[in-house]
Design brief:
By secondary structure, the chain is α/β, with parallel strands linked by helices. The protein folds into 3 domains: about 20-320, Glycosidases (TIM Barrel, Alpha-Beta Barrel); about 340-350 and about 475-570, Jelly Rolls, CATH 2.60.120.260; about 365-465, Jelly Rolls, CATH 2.60.120. It is built from 11 helices and 34 strands. Strands 4-5-6-7-8-9-10-11 form an 8-stranded parallel barrel, surrounded by 4 helices. The protein has a 5-stranded antiparallel sheet with strand order 15-28-33-30-31, with helices on one face. Strand 25 and strand 26 (about 460) form a beta hairpin. Helix 5 runs parallel beside helix 6 and helix 9 runs parallel beside helix 10 (about 310-320). The longest helix is centred in the first third of the chain and has 18 residues, at about 120-140. The radius of gyration is 25 Å and the shape is globular. The termini are far apart. It binds alpha-D-galactopyranose (GLA). Alpha-D-galactopyranose (GLA) binds next to loops. Belongs to the glycosyl hydrolase 35 family. It holds the Pfam family BetaGal_gal-bd. It comes from Microbacterium hydrocarbonoxydans. One of its GO terms (molecular function) is beta-galactosidase activity.
């Protein structure tokens, strides 16, 4: 058994000074059949450790329905790290931020009265059940029991949110009671207040930053006078939001920042080594005066790109690391161009016209009240006396397509702070509302989705709403079983499309969505994620294990218009224009 501890100046691994050179891979953002490949490539860059968060809402989207298999098999992920001869760092949250929906907290938890990220007893009771389950997986895999885990983090950048020390103490007690014996850390942005609020004297404080290392390490040192300095999130790239640019960082600058950290003797966790993908509906959002949902790709401009191929940054980082630690001679295979081909999309009819629920309520029912975890709810109401007027919604979370008697009349966007729309005379007003991703940072965790409050028409509240949840994955499965129709019927409003194509063998693919507007794509039932003309992202990554030898079936659920009814697969990712 190997020991891992914190000495006067260094981490001590088996009693010897040890520099942690780690990189982040989130198992929940990578197809499980590709975990091993990504971990191996981390070792080839010279990393000695892999770090992952644990996403509570991936394991337990519905209360009590805990899953730790398949995509959620954290134990297997840790075992693969060990098999590669590497150490592991686990950050179980419960809050993780990470541009992941709701910062990792399940909707059932954040709904209602619980005081989140605090020592409030009803919140802590749920957290304690969650952590016990996570630690059942992690405890036997600690280094002093023959496993790979060397560090466990308490909370995440808590100093940016609160200062409830009793909360942090409770998390530590739960962690120790569950048999975690490795050193415990906290991470905070390197400001005096955050470092002071986000930790406890007995926890090893680390920082999160991507530049100005010397200055940041000095701030950290003032709060952590002894032991190793560690940057637990060395930001080597950044995330993108719909309607923004694709973020990249200068390779030489990023490499020199890493060099500065390692030369100072600091330990590091590169955030991200490999970002992966927000498959399905898992993206988060930010809100600093404007709601900005995160795109499907979590490429992050990381050394290993979204498809697991080494980039220029990979080789630059490898050269830097080689100055401080042994780096394997073997190099990962260079990227090969993905198969490029086009297939026609056949119209498969409409998909959002499920029978309306009876108008059961005077006010629209939120996604949360419906306990609906998918992307859409359709709200239907009769227009009084068949009259149109000025429709006011206060507010919409997050995007609404408004139609009258099936005819689209406009959209309302939360991002653009839109609140009102003029609607024509007619019988039925329908508002299709999309949850575009739950805010993952700051105090908007658990915000309700849907139509909030009661919409009014010319100042009069509309009553008698039917609120119909639409599960896009279920609808895609149903569409996938339809016989596509090649006739050119024009459907106004949301339309479903199917394409079939053959592959000689499974392959990573890049699906170009730029001739479509907004919607969701599925391959062989695998939910690739959201697409949107708003950009910057233009292609969706299709992991090889989601494809199959022989016939493959693509289902596209479009909310607006398909400009060209074709599915184009292209040779590489197009993540959009950068600032330069
Ligand atoms: C913070 C959080 C991470 C992530 C990064 C930005 O450091 O701790 O989870 O959100 O910001 O990518």
């Amino acid at each position: 058994m190997t020991s891992f501890s914190i000495g006067e100046t260094d981490f001590l691994r088996a009693g010897l000074p040890h520099q942690v050179i780690s990189g982040a891979i989130h198992y929940f953002r990578v197809h499980p059949d590709q975990w091993q490949d990504r971990i191996r490539k981390a070792r080839l860059m010279g990393l000695n450790t892999i770090e992952t968060y644990v996403a509570w809402n991936a394991h337990e989207p519905r209360r009590g329905e805990w899953d730790a298999s398949g995509w959620n098999d954290l134990g297997r992920f840790l075992d693969l790290i060990q098999a590669e001869g590497m150490d592991a760092i686990v950050r179980p949250g419960p809050y993780i931020c990470a541009e992941w929906h709701n910062g990792g907290l399940p909707n059932w938890l954040t709904r209602g009265e619980r005081e989140l990220r605090s020592s409030e007893p009803t919140y802590l009771a749920e957290v304690s059940a969650y952590l016990r389950r996570v630690y059942e997986i992690v405890t036997p895999r600690q280094i002093d029991r023959g496993g790979p885990v060397v560090l466990v983090q308490i909370e995440n950048e808590y100093g940016a949110y609160g200062s409830d020390k009793a909360y942090l103490e409770a998390l530590v007690a739960l962690t120790r009671e569950a048999g975690i014996t490795v050193p415990l850390t906290t991470v905070d942005q390197p400001t005096d207040r955050m470092l002071a609020d986000g930790s406890l004297p007995e926890l090893h404080k680390t920082g999160s930053f991507g530049s100005r290392s010397a200055e940041r390490l000095a701030t950290l040192r003032a709060h952590q006078p002894t032991g190793p300095l560690m940057c637990s999130e060395f930001w080597d790239g950044w995330f993108d939001w719909w309607g923004g640019v694709h973020h990249t960082t200068d390779v030489a600058e990023a490499a020199s920042d890493l060099d500065e950290l390692l030369a100072a003797g600091a330990s590091v966790n590169i955030y991200m080594f490999h970002g992966g993908t927000n498959f399905g509906l898992t993206n988060g959002a930010n809100h600093k005066g404007r709601y900005l949902p995160i795109v499907t790709s979590y490429d992050y401009d990381a050394p290993l790109d979204e498809a697991g191929n080494p980039t220029e940054k990979f080789f630059a980082f490898r050269d830097v690391i080689a100055k401080y630690a042994p780096v394997p001679e073997e190099l990962p295979a260079p990227a090969v161009a993905a198969p490029a081909f086009s297939v026609p999309l056949a119209s498969a009819g409409s998909w959002t016209d499920a029978a309306a629920t009876a108008p059961s309520s005077s006010a629209p029912v939120t996604f949360d009240e419906l306990e609906h975890l998918s992307a859409l709810v359709r709200y239907d109401v009769m227009l009084p006396e068949g009259r149109g007027g000025l429709l006011r919604i206060d507010p919409v979370r997050d995007h609404a397509w408004v139609s009258v008697d099936g005819q689209p009349v406009g959209t309302l966007s939360r991002t653009r702070h839109e609140r009102a729309l003029r609607v024509p005379d007619g019988r039925t007003l329908s508002i299709l509302v999309e949850d575009q991703g739950r805010v993952n940072y700051d105090h908007r965790l658990g915000e309700e989705k849907g139509l909030i409050g009661t919409p009014s028409l010319d100042g009069v509240r509309l009553t008698g709403w039917g609120s119909t949840p639409l599960d896009v994955a279920e609808l895609a499965a149903e569409v996938g079983s339809r016989v596509a129709d090649s006739s050119d019927d024009v459907i106004s409003g949301p339309s479903a499309w199917i394409a079939e194509f053959d592959l000689d063998s499974p392959a990573d693919l890049f699906l170009d969505t730029s001739a479509w507007s907004k919607g969701y794509a599925f391959l062989n039932g695998f939910f690739l994620g959201r697409y949107w003309r708003n950009g910057p992202q233009r292609t969706l990554f299709v992991p090889a294990p989601a494809t199959t030898t022989g016939a493959n079936r693509l289902v596209v659920l479009e909310l607006e218009e398909l400009f060209v009814p074709t599915a184009d697969f292209v040779s590489g990712a197009v993540l959009g224009d950068t600032e330069e």
